[in-house]
Design a protein that fits this description.
Blueprint (H helix, E strand, L loop, with lengths): L1 E3 L5 E2 L2 E11 L10 E7 L4 E7 L2 E3 L2 E11 L8 E7 L9 E7 L37 E8 L11 H16 L2 E10 L12 H15 L9 E6 L4 H8 L6 H11 L5 H9 L4 H8 L5 E9 L6 H12 L9 H10 L3 H14 L3 H16 L4 H21 L3 H13 L3 H13 L4 H18 L2 H7 L7 H13 L3 H14 L5 H12 L3 H14 L1 H9 L10 H8 L5
Parallel strand pairs: 11-12
Antiparallel strand pairs: 1-3, 2-3, 3-7, 4-5, 4-8, 6-7, 8-9, 10-13, 11-13
Length: 561
């Protein structure tokens, strides 16, 4: 008896499979009315799939039946089981056979705004910006200083000076630095020497240069690190290298992702035709220190405007001369949801505009994210939808459509949500908006099974680990493991405590037959997330690994135990 595919998989809201086989006449099952039934059985739910028709041919009964089941969450850990009967009376089956354990639900890992146990609350919803402030307050900047071979001295070359000038201009525009990361790297060239300290020396030298400048940041926002004997940065450069064909790049990627140690990979790379040219072009660019900055412009009202705002909030309808833009700036710059709630609620009394209604709806959406009470959550979503409906009557705004789509996603109606998000993308060319809206659409494309289309949605510069992960997931589901690996690694780099990047790397390793690598990444994933801990125990992607003692060892040593 066979089931095809051997591992059941979620695809576009359903599970599809075929069961086929034969029952020999000489079998004890065949003499008296043999019957075959299929059951999908979970820990607390069961789906009877009915009797399979048996066709008698010469010395056997044969059967083939196709199924398409609407996926339900309990099915992820369920088993597909066959019951064999003979005789007219159906009592206990004479034989049982498990055909498949669990369902592969990898697309459902896509991050679309749901709150998960022991994970940071996702920031959902888009406020309509004022126009006088930066439409997307957060900005990411990347600046790379180059070094001479074997040196950790920051030379005042024309190239480095241009980079520092660019960095200073970035800070002038976005002086509120939330994080700054300096990563020193070193090249495999012999001229770089054999010391593992060179990368860190370069990072510290770069930090010293920044300290001498006018750049101000909290030490808590600073991370100084280095990479040595690591091909990660080389892979990033290789991705944009134009002098090598895609076929040649794939040959290099196959080595870079084979899970072997650095020196072994280096030896294998040198044997690839044309690698000497690649190394001459790219290795010098690894003598570097990368500065990554997340920053924002300074927000808010001045002292006089703040006094007027306070007076208006205490009053009964007077706005004390503040313009709508000033009110919006006050709401936008207030860090607390309660303050935003008060400001936008007052604005709905003072201004006939979509902005306060939309932005108050976003407040309700984010308040819903912070409650575990489903009834309260539903009430907040309902109120948010009423506010968005009111806003839509005043203006055909992409922000309103996006927020309506986001609520539909959280309510489980991804198809209606996709229509809203699609409509939103049509009526604006704002890159800041499209980055967020298209990324959510891309995540829904993954859920819908349109993996190639999802990849096209993720063509933006990201800084959040969830966005890198979703991008990697789209590549993984398209069987593009090389690009998936890069995106998952970028997710890990952006946030090691996130966990999902490690899980993605474990999936790639498991599907590539690299058991030891898979276990290393899986251990890092389950240590970071209770959700991933529970999923790994039943995920059919790791079925072969579950047959090893090493698999259970990583769970024994996990902090969850």
């Amino acid at each position: 008896m066979e089931v095809s595919p051997a591992k059941l998989s979620y695809f576009r809201d359903s599970i599809q499979f075929e069961v086929s086989g034969t029952i020999p006449i000489e079998s004890v099952l065949s003499p008296k009315n043999p019957q075959l039934e299929l059951v999908f059985r979970g820990s607390d739910s069961e789906l009877l799939l009915g009797e399979i028709e048996l066709n008698k041919i010469l010395a056997a009964y044969e059967y083939k039946e196709s199924y398409k089941l609407r996926y339900e969450p309990w099915m992820e850990g369920a088993v597909l089981e066959a019951y064999f009967y003979h005789g007219k009376k159906k009592e206990d089956p004479s034989e049982r056979k498990i055909l498949a354990k669990g369902v592969i639900t990898t697309p459902l890992l896509a991050k679309v705004g749901h709150v998960r146990v022991d994970e940071p609350i996702p920031q959902i919803g888009l406020y309509i910006p004022t126009g006088s402030m930066d439409k997307d307050l957060s900005r990411y900047g990347e600046f790379v200083l180059q070094f001479e071979a074997g040196s950790s001295v920051v030379k005042s070359t024309r190239q480095n000076q241009a980079i520092l000038d660019s960095l200073e201009q970035f800070i002038l525009r976005y002086p509120s630095i939330s994080s700054i990361r300096i990563t020193g790297t070193q090249s495999p060239e012999n001229s770089e020497g054999k010391s593992s300290r060179l990368g860190m020396d370069r990072a510290n030298a770069t930090l010293a240069v920044l300290r001498k400048s006018n750049i101000r940041f909290q030490d808590s926002a600073l991370t100084v690190t280095s990479r040595w004997n690591d091909w990660f940065d080389f892979r990033l450069l290789l991705r944009d290298y134009q002098r090598f064909s895609t076929q040649k790049k794939d040959e290099l990627y196959a080595i870079l992702l084979n899970g072997q140690d650095y020196q072994t990979q280096a030896s294998q790379l040198r044997k690839v035709s044309g690698f000497s040219q690649v190394s001459r072009d790219l290795f010098p660019r690894l003598r570097a220190a990368k500065i990554e900055i997340n920053a924002k412009p300074l927000p808010g009202l001045d002292q006089e405007q703040s006094a007027k705002l306070e007076e208006a909030l205490k009053g009964t309808g007077l706005n004390s001369g503040l313009s709508q833009a000033e009110w919006a700036i006050a709401g936008e710059s207030s860090p607390r949801l309660d303050d935003k709630d008060e400001i936008y609620s007052k604005m709905t009394e003072l201004f006939h505009s979509a902005l306060p209604y939309n932005n108050l709806a976003v407040v309700r959406m984010r308040q819903a994210q912070r409650t575990l009470d489903q009834k309260k959550k539903d009430q907040l979503w309902e109120e948010a939808n009423r506010l968005l409906e009111q806003a839509s009557k005043m203006e055909n705004s992409p922000y309103v459509l996006h927020n309506q789509g986001q609520i539909l996603v959280l309510q489980g109606d991804s198809w209606s949500a996709y229509k809203k998000l699609s409509d939103a993308s049509v009526i604006t060319k704002n890159e800041d908006f499209l980055k967020i809206n298209e990324s959510l659409r891309g995540s829904l494309d993954i859920l819908r099974g349109d993996y190639k289309l999802a990849i096209l949605r993720f063509q933006y510069v990201y800084s959040e680990p969830k966005d890198f992960f979703n991008k990697g997931l789209a590549y993984f589901m398209s069987d593009d493991y090389a690009n998936a690996s890069i995106s998952f690694e970028e997710s890990v780099t952006a946030g090691r405590s996130f966990g999902y990047g490690y899980y993605g790397l474990a999936l790639i390793a498991a599907n590539s037959g690299q058991e030891e690598v898979a276990l290393i990444h899986l251990k890092q994933a389950i240590d970071a997330s209770e959700v991933l801990y529970q999923k790994a125990l039943i995920d059919p992607e790791f079925e072969e690994l579950r047959g090893t003692q090493a698999f259970f060892e990583i769970f024994k040593s996990s902090p969850e135990n």
